[in-house]
Amino acid sequence: MNAFTHLGRYLKLIGTSFSRPENWEVYFDNLIQEMNKQGVNSIGIVLVISAFMGAVTTVQTAYQLVSSLIPASVIGSVVSDSTILELAPTVTSLVLAGRIGSSIATEIGTMRVSEQIDALEVMGINSASFLVLPKIVACVIMIPLLIIIAMSVSITGGIIAGELSGIVTVNEFVYGMRDSFRTYTFVFALVKTFTFAFVISTVSAYQGYFTKGGALEVGQASTKAIVWSSLLILFFDYLLAQLFL
User: Fold this and answer.
1) Residue 196 to residue 151: CA distance in whole angstroms
2) Cα(27)–Cα(125) distance, rounded to whole angstroms?
3) For residue 140, which of 53, 16, 14 has the smallest C-alpha distance?
4) pTM score, two decimals?
5) 1 pLDDT exceeds 70?
6) How far is Cα 132 from Cα 15, in angstroms, rounded to an integer?
7) Are the beta carbons of 182 and 85 closer than 8 angstroms?
């Protein structure tokens, strides 16, 4: 199967998914469950990764600023800008591609090989809209929120690491952060997060929805979901930066 066939099936699945739900009450129940499963259950790993990411960035930035003529507040500028613009959106999305992407692909793939999706179709239910749409909407809502949390925790981790190690004081860090903050940078980061959320949810759903075989193929679909989501995140990261920066 060539790339154009995959692209056509992917676009057809997305188009079928974005149809009017047949039962709004069931749809909202599924949406709440997906938001809890994909968003709330991912907060722990996002907090841990973000805190260490900010701390390490602060220490490494200070290590590279060897000149005494450069004020310590520059560390705050570099760490906050790097976190908002690149580290929090991209690194967090790559982590979530592993956690959320594999979960979506495994769940839908298991339903496919156990013929539960076929049963939905026999009952006249749009399986793509019933299964995939709540996952896409939940990801597009929750992943940007997780990344905003990651930005805050990462910068806080950088402040704490700088203060505890004596590299930069809290006041110097905050001064540098406020001095370099640009609203456009934050808006651009949000655009990236929505794009990455859509990629993770749709690519993973596609891999799971067209799974054939048994348990082994479900595992392979999960792996493909992580790999392709990660590659597309990096591709769109570069593309958006090229277009808007």
Assistant:
1) 16
2) 12
3) 14
4) 0.90
5) no
6) 11
7) no
